[in-house]
Design brief:
This protein has 377 residues and is mostly helical. It has 2 domains: 3-42 and 179-371, no CATH class; 49-156, abc type-2 transporter like domain (abc type-2 transporter like fold, 3-Layer(aba) Sandwich). Helices cover 67% and strands 6% of the residues. The chain has helices spanning 3-19, 21-41, 61-71, 85-94, 107-112, 128-156, 179-201, 203-210, 213-217, 223-251, 261-286, 289-307, 319-325, 329-343, 347-371; strands at 49-55, 76-81, 99-103, 120-123. β1, α3 (61-71) and β2 (76-81) form a beta-alpha-beta unit. It is elongated. Residues 160-167 have low confidence and may be disordered.
Length: 377
């Protein structure tokens, strides 16, 4: 291979990118926009659950003290108090509230007499996952209230509360259970994968559509030189996107980075090489920009979104689907990014993911070179 010819092809591609502001905007501004949208809009944390309350025992101090546990919690927002089921049904039907609490009129009587006090909880189950989490919050509040009642009762009779088992939890890596720390590294991987494959998927197809490929074929440029020459400009753009994404993650979303920046650069280079080579391979096969962009979207966006562990845990998927996820490169890169950002993992922990990314980069690059032929069909 001739370095001079490779640099000439790269320079030609840089000029082509500069002359096409839409591609440049796609390469620089779309990743920033996606990161901001996903970082701010996508959250697995659920708080301020819209709640309506019907306290049939409103004159009782016990019922009012019980409701304080919901009013003082960030997970609930009592938007309305009512005195009938018609309002509750109307608010749940319209989606103005997600949950309704109904405290019976004998609530305080049951507690004072040492009996179990009933509490009615009505939940909008149209969003099953959110409803399940909201019900878990209610169970937690009720559980703490029961413990407080037991403690007060024992102390009032001169007894100290017995503690046979005391659990002390400690959360590692994400002490505040901030879902944004979990989401943002995955968004970075998704952006790099989609943008890299999408940009390069049209670079060869564009030459065929514009009729300039025949001119390149007539030159002494070899197939590997042409592929590498087209690869280098987008490799540089990919690292610009990565740099911007890491800056936004660190200083805008305040995601900690506890790993090695050298490992980040090295492993990102492997992943970026594979993604770019996959795009060039698609472009070589498709030969039209429309088909190439559609194939790139189909083979990168959907697998990265659904099968990489970006949002949905892989261990919760069926066994057959779990086996398929081993073929998704974003699965390994997301694991690497979350390990670097949150855990400070080193290569001794991430060597198997790094090995797969190396195999992915080599195989995609080899197939892209092998598939490209200096022939006019």
């Amino acid at each position: 291979m001739n370095l001079r010819r490779i640099l000439a092809i790269s320079n030609k591609e840089f000029i082509q990118i500069q002359r096409d502001p839409r591609s440049l905007a796609l390469a620089i501004f779309i990743p920033i926009l996606l990161l901001l949208i996903f970082g701010y809009a996508l959250s697995l944390d659920i708080d301020r659950v819209q709640t309506v309350v019907w306290n049939q025992d409103a004159s009782s101090k016990l019922s009012r003290d019980f409701l304080l546990n919901f009013k003082n919690s960030k997970y609930f927002k009592i938007v309305k108090y009512t005195d009938n089921y018609r309002d509750i049904q109307r608010l749940l039907d319209s989606g103005d509230v997600m949950m309704a609490l109904v405290i019976p009129k004998d609530f305080s009587h049951f507690i004072e007499s040492g009996k179990t006090a009933p509490l009615q909880l009505l939940v909008d189950g149209s969003d099953s996952s959110t409803a399940t989490i909201a019900m878990g919050y209610v169970s937690s509040v009720v559980g703490r209230y029961n413990v407080q009642l037991l403690t007060d009762t024992l102390f009032s009779h001169g007894f100290s509360p017995a503690r046979n088992v005391e659990m002390r939890s400690r959360i590692w890596f994400n002490m505040g259970l901030n879902s944004r720390w979990f989401i943002v590294p995955g968004v970075i991987a998704m952006i790099i994968m989609i943008i890299a494959a999408l940009l390069t998927s049209i670079c060869v197809a564009r030459e065929w559509e514009r009729g300039t490929m025949e001119q390149l074929i007539s030159t002494p440029v070899k197939a590997p030189e042409l592929i590498i020459g087209k690869f280098l400009p987008y490799f540089a753009i990919g690292f610009i996107d990565l740099f911007i994404a890491v800056i936004i993650a660190r200083f805008l979303f305040e995601v900690p980075f506890r790993g090695s920046y050298f490992s980040l650069v090295f492993l990102s280079a492997l992943f970026l090489t594979g993604a770019l080579s996959q795009g060039i391979l698609i472009s070589t096969v498709a030969r039209t920009q429309l088909l190439a962009s559609q194939l790139a979207t189909l083979t990168t966006f959907i697998p990265t979104m659904l099968l990489s562990g970006f949002i949905y845990p892989i261990f919760n998927m069926p066994q057959v689907v779990q086996a398929i996820t081993y073929l998704i490169p974003a699965r390994y890169y997301i694991t690497i990014l979350r390990g670097l950002f949150l855990k400070g993992n080193g290569m001794d922990v991430m060597w198997d993911e790094a090995l797969f990314l190396l195999l992915f980069a080599f195989s995609m690059f080899f197939l892209a070179i092998r598939k490209f032929k200096k022939k006019v069909f």
